[in-house]
Amino acid sequence: MATSKTTTVSSPGKVLLAGGYLVLDREYSGLVVATSSRFYSTVTSLPKSTAQDKVILSVRAGQFPKESSTWTYSVNIQNDRLVINQINENELGKNKFIFIALFQILSLACEKIATESSLKGLDAAHELLRRITDDGNSDGLDIVVLADNDFYSQREQLSALSLPTQIHSLSSLQPFTPLPRPIPQTNKTGLGSSAALVTSLVASLLSHLNIVTLPSSYPQSNSNHDLQLVHSLAQFAHCLAQGKVGSGFDVSSAVFGTHIYTRFSPSVLSPLMDRPLGSITLSSPTLLPALEPSQWDQRTTAFRLPKGLRLILADVDAGTDTPSFVGKVLTWRKENPEIAKKLWDDLDIANRQIERLLTELVAREGQVDYDETVGWMGERHIEDVSLYSFSDYSKRFLVPICDYQVRVGRIRVDMSVLEQHKENPTAVLLYEIRLTLFIIRDFQRRMSELSGVPIEPPEQTRLLDACSELEGVIGGGVPGAGGYDALFLLIVDTPSVVSRVDDLWSGWKEMSVCPLLAKQSDGGLKVEELDAVKGLKEALSR
Ligand SMILES: Nc1ncnc2c1ncn2[C@@H]1O[C@H](COP(=O)(O)OP(=O)(O)O)[C@@H](O)[C@H]1O
Ligand SMILES: C[C@@](O)(CCOP(=O)(O)OP(=O)(O)O)CC(=O)O
Fold first, then answer.
1. Least CB-packed of 124, 301, 377, 428 within 10 Å?
2. DSSP string across 331-381
3. Where is the GHMP kinase C-terminal domain (predicted)?
4. Class of domain 7-303
5. Number of the ligand 2 atom closest to the C-alpha atom of 19
6. Region 328-346: what's the mean pLDDT?
7. Of all atoms in ligand 1, which is nearest to the CA of residue 195?
8. CATH number attached to the domain at 309-521
């Protein structure tokens, strides 16, 4: 490993802060925040063995039991096709996400080589095999995928070490902590393991094989052609493996980081969805024209959370199985078009309001009072109602939000504090952000009541309300599709606020609440130096 070329690419996990369900529709958008917890794919050459005459791609899920988590594939040319077969399918079963990603990566690589050189058809496939085997010096590629601990529930690991489910315990676990059971028997935390896996695989392999050139640091804009090609291939492979075309916000943030996302038209993928898997026809290109970034119509609008605020996440274990909510919500929407349209439109206004307010707060970061005000808020209840009368606020929203019985007034109000800060625009924005988070939650509960799907179930309402009463907590919600599994809070980023939240979660009785270590991260896909990622080198050599 020391001598051969090594390529590591990481992709962040995701939290859909606003826009669940709406983002499935191109008319609306979603606010997706990428996380500091990442998925790492590392590609290097396999050693050359005399016995082996096949070209091999080996993919190992590095923190899972080796014997059940190493998928091995052979790649060879048969007649006029490039054929990919899993060698150990009988013993291990398939990993659809890995197989489909590899298959599409090789298909695109053949087409790119044929398009960009004089090598066509079979010659392009031979060139690809030459690159995979490092000019015949290796049996193929050794790929190890490792996910930050946050992607999987660490409850068992903590309990084995007699540690409480608190942030300091999680920080004491070794990076890429080995997990005892195979992936299907391991609980995920909702950061989007398959999207981050597929994206990091696509990027690391295409880059290792010199098919794309990735930016060496976080790109300043999303207009880099190769990055966009990685995006469209990862979206395609992920949809195919999932067996459905979702909104794709998870893959988009795995590539581009935090942003406001408007989905691609599902029709860009329809011509590709029925292509057979397993063998690649080496005639005219079919993937490249469909994946060409200019054919894709998704929008990614730059966004970041303001300085001094932190996104904090919890994995909730309510002992309830969250079924797939999407089908039910969309069926209800179809059956109730008028009422659903009004709800979708009003919730969208609230979602866009939160984006706008956070962006306005970012614009105030340079003001002299900014750090002081944010820090000051960290030690106080962030009261929400007195700065505006309710009707003032609904004017800003331009909708009669009273229709939805927004539950303001539950939070304790200290008039003297408000009087003092009325003229401080940074404080006002923080109050407005808090109020808007409450309003979004109210709309989501309305969606729950109407559709019969527990998007913000009462157990989560109680927990979120209790968290929102803590000093320095601006507000929160259920991310993505909602349900019982996870929650997010937006807090003032100081150790005392984090520790208040941590204490409340660890003492919560109604559900088991385990924090994640992740914070928000602006950046998306990243080419990594092995030594710069804590614990990665050690985990790779385990
Ligand atoms: N560390 C990993 N190594 C290999 N495959 C993984 C890993 N983590 C997740 N996967 C793949 O992703 C699938 C989980 O995808 P999915 O159920 O969509 O969950 P998520 O919402 O986390 O993406 C797993 O069944 C497995 O195929
Ligand atoms: C409903 C949705 O809009 C958001 C779902 O977000 P989650 O973060 O809940 O997603 P999973 O990782 O698939 O569990 C569906 C979509 O946009 O595809």
1. 301
2. HHHHHSHHHHHHHHHHHHHHHHHHHHHHHHHHHTTTSTTHHHHHHHHTTS-
3. 445-491
4. alpha beta
5. 3
6. 95
7. 23
8. 3.30.70.890
